[in-house]
Amino acid sequence: MSVRNDSRTLMYWVGIFASAIVFIGSIAGCGASEDGPAVPVDTGSSDRDAPHSSQPASIFCGPFEEVLRKNFGIQLSNVEGTTRGLDVPIDNAVACKYSGSLNNKHSARAWLWSYNYDLDLDAEGDDLARTGYTALNGYPESAWIRDRRERLSYSGLSTVELVTIIGRWHGTIDVSTPAGAPQVTDDQVSALMNVLIETTGSIQE
User: Fold this and answer.
1) Rounded to whole angstroms, how far apart are CA atoms 108 and 62?
2) Cβ of 34: how many Cβ atoms within 10 Å?
3) What is the sign of the dihedral through the CA atoms of 190, 196, 197 and 202?
4) What pTM does this model have?
């Protein structure tokens, strides 16, 4: 494997790892004041060459709410890693969590980060395939899915995970469905993928 492929794979897993850290940090800070300082989100793409956006998190996180509320009864619960909510600048990464009432076990997460190098979509597709993703056709931009609707996790949830890469921006959303609840349909997958592509493509440096 070339040094460049090693670098690309490392950056991909750094992004996944950092998203998990952001999620854990948001749980630990859930009692913080709404007026508290933002916690910076760092996915390892902080090199000067990585795109940074001054647009607010609402540009990326907000548009998912309509689809998620209509289909699963869930809405944005927090922008992970910050107490400033949708006003926090995206910078080079942002992560959002969506949830419902106490009796509604559906949940979703959407996150976005940038890379500090130009991406080869074929190579990225190969990397995603190694972790269980397959390409989706019929979309104006790259689209992948990791479909685990028929497979329950240890916590009794089935999941569907979607990814798009546009320019140097990687956008993803996953939806978790509890056992016994209707699974995410193909039409719902399509609706979420369209929003993911639209929001990721709207990010400006």
Assistant:
1) 13
2) 7
3) positive
4) 0.75
